[in-house]
Design a protein that fits this description.
Blueprint: H1 5-24, H2 41-45, E1 71-78, E2 84-93, E3 98-116, E4 122-142, E5 147-160, E6 163-176, E7 185-194, E8 206-213, E9 220-229, E10 233-244, E11 248-260, E12 273-281, E13 284-292, E14 298-307
Antiparallel strand pairs: 1-2, 1-14, 2-3, 3-4, 4-5, 5-6, 6-7, 7-8, 8-9, 9-10, 10-11, 11-12, 12-13, 13-14
């Protein structure tokens, strides 16, 4: 039987309303937590909502069909104690679909190494490197006039000293973007970072759904979302962007924790405000995001987007 638009929308609704069931049964420590990092400064400043920008198609591949011309995106974030995050992404449309190829990595800098002597004392023993990274490829296609689907796969690895682990993570998403010229909203959601356990640890899998209100003739857009991690952490998200002369952009976001069963996150879990701004001229845009991390200080993220 052919898939109809009504059938697809019903399936997406079932996924949304049953997602809390999955979250209640998969609490625990996860591997590759750097996968929770926002991909670039645009996303970071808007509470991590990935349904707003095509440059974040690695997280939400159903947005790939929205790109009108090839886009190259790069980002860099400086954290505490020489920890840094960097990403690179290329998204391009084709005749009947679009593709995204991405890389992201977290470098933890030099870490001091110690050995225990016969007296039980710990002596310096040089230093070693540690890093997490992934490469990803995603496809997106508009299957109906108003509905698009996307899928991406990530190869993820972690290296600490002379040991390493690796695994695969998948993203599945859908978007309903009405084609009516008078429509000022769209809805997008899906699953992020789902896959088999790695060395006995589950991935930081999540389900999300976003509502975005936007219009080309209006300077202000906003988005509301919910993100439920399978380890029992649930967020309500809100973000807004104001454009000045379609050149300067002021952005802010806030994530409200609904549940926090993972007590190890502690007080830093409440540090959930984001702020940023951007500048766009012609085919180039530069963006900045500020993220507070409590006692660990603030994170500054920069990104560059180039359209061809």
């Amino acid at each position: 039987m052919p898939i109809t638009r009504k059938t697809l929308i019903c399936c997406l609704s079932v996924i949304f309303f049953t997602s809390p069931v999955f979250a209640e049964n998969a609490a625990g420590t996860t591997a590759f937590n750097f996968l929770k990092m926002p991909f670039n400064a645009q996303v970071a400043s808007m509470a991590g909502i990935s349904s707003l920008f095509v440059s974040a198609s690695v997280s939400n591949p159903s947005m790939i069909p929205s790109v009108e011309k090839p886009v190259l995106s790069a980002a860099y974030a400086s954290h505490f104690q020489d920890v840094n995050y960097n990403s690179l992404s290329f998204t391009s449309p084709f005749k009947n679909f679009g593709i995204n190829v991405s890389y992201a990595g977290m470098n933890y800098g030099k870490i001091d190494s110690y050995i225990e002597d016969s007296s039980g004392n710990y002596l310096p023993n040089g230093s070693f490197d540690a890093n997490d990274a992934y490469v990803s490829i995603g496809l997106g296609k508009e299957i109906f006039r108003d509905v698009s689907l996307g899928i991406s796969v990530k190869y993820v690895w972690q290296k600490i000293y002379d040991s390493s682990i690796a695994g695969a993570a998948f993203n599945f998403s859908g978007a309903y973007i009405p084609g009516n010229a008078d429509t000022t909203w769209y809805v997008s959601g899906g699953f992020e970072n789902v896959g088999a356990d790695v060395e006995g640890y589950p991935l930081p899998s999540s389900f999300y759904i976003d509502f975005v209100n936007t219009h080309e003739e209006e300077p202000f857009i906003y988005a509301l979302g919910i993100k439920a991690y399978f380890d029992n952490t649930v967020w309500l998200k809100a973000a807004g962007e104001y454009a000045f002369n379609e050149m300067f952009f002021l952005r802010a976001g806030y994530s409200l924790p609904v549940t926090n069963d993972n007590e190890s996150l502690g007080e830093l879990y409440q540090r959930n405000l984001s702020f940023g701004f951007g500048f766009e001229y012609g085919f180039v845009s530069i963006d900045y995001a500020w993220l507070p991390f409590g006692d660990l200080g603030n994170t500054n993220m920069f990104s560059l987007n180039i359209s061809f």
